[in-house]
Amino acid sequence: MVVGTAGCAQESDTEASTQSTTTTALPTKTPSPYAEQADEFRAFLQQEEISIVELLPQPPANTVELTYVSNEAQYEEVGGEIGTIAGGFFNRVANGWEAERLNAIVMDSPESRFGTWHAKSSWFADYQDGELSANELSLKVLDTLSRAEDA
């Protein structure tokens, strides 16, 4: 009876070692270039001390949805901040990001919507082609700024 027990124990050890050596490695998911560019944009915004509430890249639609809390106290003072954010977006586009549009929601606090604005990569392409000056590009973006209805 002791020999039978030893044989069973030995068989269990063999089964256990066979099971541990046949584990299948799960494939690692490689982030898409679109998502990597979004991560780089997020890092840029954080470096510029932009308080991101939400940053959602939407690859099928090639849009980026950004919600952030402004560092500026007045609606009329957000222009420089918008220029910084739009410049970061255009820089990513220049480096291959296939995003066509950045939609931004500006908050004056995490609970209160301040306004909205957007930037289009096609405007940046026009700038690169010499069809728009840097000032005209900036004005195109700033002209999209609209005050939130509850602000």
Automatic annotation (TrEMBL):
InterPro entries: DUF8159
Origin: domain of life: Archaea
Domain DUF8159 stretches: 38-149
Protein name: DUF8159 domain-containing protein
Residue ranges, compositional bias (Low complexity): 15-32
Organism field: Haloferax prahovense (strain DSM 18310 / JCM 13924 / TL6)
Pfam families: DUF8159 (PF26490)
Renumbered residue ranges of the record's region Disordered: 1-33
